[in-house]
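User: Can you help me understand a structure? I only have the sequence.
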Amino acid sequence: MNRYIAFDVETPNRYNSRMSAIGIAVVEDGRITDSFYSLVDPEQPFDWFNTQLTGIDSLAVQGAPTFPELWNRIEPIMASGILVAHNASFDMGVLKKCLRDYGVPWQPQVKGLCTVLMGRRLLPGISHRLNDMCAYYGIDLTHHRADSDSRACAEILIRYLESGAEPSRFLRTYSL
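Assistant: Let's start by predicting it. Here is the structure, written out as tokens:
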């Protein structure tokens, strides 16, 4: 499959069981062809740390869709390719908890790529934090903003593909 769905989530608190924002960037044939962003009402309180990090608080998400409301819109996108995230265990974990806690049925497992794990094998000896990788490749980033982070993840994936990386070598199965 040559379609990748790079996504990033922001969370409201230390429990990392709800989203306060999601960004999605679709990669097809080595370029970003579509993107999506939404704030999400997590229906949970915000921790000061998370608000400082993301700039999102309870006022910002007033009127935003809840995860189940948003899922109806983004599920067709998320199901249309291989999921990709920078530090995928975090983003996949938040997705899994949202699906479980809201009782939203979906695939029990998905194929995915983690650009951190890919980078550690493709470019050993350097930092693979998102901001460092963006500096390395000259990618614009407004860090901890889901739309910018998902686009940056997609751009990093594109750089890896352009360098000849074979995605199948890095493909993992994530349980949801």
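Now, to help you interpret it: The longest strand covers residues 31-39. The CA atoms of residues 100 and 176 lie 8 Å apart. Let me know which part you'd like to focus on.
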